[in-house]
């Protein structure tokens, strides 16, 4: 659709050169300041819940976070959507309620997480693809209205002092 894709991140990132993708992560001009400038001037930001993602809310840029880890650390803005990693224990996926009511909700360290037998499951290619398509429609229409299920989720998580806007596909599979 004519988007210019700029790959940000750590210079040690293992990447394959793709047509139409600027490998800024391998650039000599990569810096925290330039990260901020790129995000300030982008149409939207797609990334994960670390590093440069903190810039998008300051510039009110639509933001899609994939493979998000700790939901407690995320900004809550109307034009943001989050696709969290699934968390499992003993091979069973935790519901969002189980996640929020467990001590792991507040973990910043994988050491405690692993010690208690919890595992992260990365988003599948299909989940990421569906989320990007949904996000693209939101950006193109500039309509970030929530579905009924997203509204219910938003209302329920207020008691956990959180307000992330979760993708509707994730909510269908990980109900409260």
Description:
The chain has 176 residues and is of the alpha/beta class. It has seven helices and eight strands; from the N terminus they run E-E-H-E-H-E-E-E-E-H-H-E-H-H-H. It has helices at residues 32-40, 55-58, 96-100, 110-115, 125-141, 148-157, 168-173; strands spanning 5-6, 21-22, 45-47, 63-68, 80-84, 86-89, 92-93, 118-121. The chain has a three-stranded parallel beta sheet with strand order 3-4-5, covered by helices on one side. The protein starts with a strand and ends with a helix.
Write the layout of secondary structure elements.
Layout: E1 5-6, E2 21-22, H1 32-40, E3 45-47, H2 55-58, E4 63-68, E5 80-84, E6 86-89, E7 92-93, H3 96-100, H4 110-115, E8 118-121, H5 125-141, H6 148-157, H7 168-173
Parallel strand pairs: 1-2, 3-4, 4-5
Antiparallel strand pairs: 6-7, 6-8
Strand content: 15-25%
Enumerate the strands of the largest sheet in spatial order, edge to edge or round the barrel. 3-4-5
Q: What structural class do the secondary elements suggest?
A: alpha/beta
- Helices and strands, in order, run as EEHEHEEEEHHEHHH
What is the global morphology? globular
Q: What is the helix content?
A: 25-40%
Q: Helical region count? A: 7
Main beta sheet strand tally, sense and closure: 3 strands, parallel
Number of strands: 8
Radius of gyration: 17 Å
Distance between the termini: 36 Å
Please tell me the overall pLDDT: 80
Low-confidence stretches: none
Keywords summarizing the entry:
3-stranded antiparallel sheet; 176 residues; alpha/beta; 8 strands; 3-stranded parallel sheet; 7 helices
């Amino acid at each position: 659709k004519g988007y210019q894709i700029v790959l940000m991140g750590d210079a040690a990132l293992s990447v394959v050169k793709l047509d139409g993708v600027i490998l800024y992560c391998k650039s000599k001009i990569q810096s925290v300041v330039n990260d901020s400038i790129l995000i300030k001037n982008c149409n939207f930001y797609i990334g994960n819940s670390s590093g440069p993602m903190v810039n998008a809310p300051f510039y009110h840029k639509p933001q899609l976070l994939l493979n998000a880890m700790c939901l407690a650390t995320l900004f809550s803005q109307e034009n943001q959507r989050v696709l969290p990693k699934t968390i499992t224990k003993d091979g069973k996926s935790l519901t969002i309620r189980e996640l929020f009511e467990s001590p792991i909700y507040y973990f910043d360290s994988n050491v405690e997480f692993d010690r208690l037998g919890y595992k992260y499951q990365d988003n599948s290619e299909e989940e990421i693809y569906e989320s990007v398509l949904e996000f693209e429609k939101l950006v193109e229409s500039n309509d970030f209205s929530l579905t009924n299920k997203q509204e219910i989720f938003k209302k329920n998580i207020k008691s956990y002092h959180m307000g992330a806007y979760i993708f509707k596909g994730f909510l269908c599979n990980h109900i409260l």
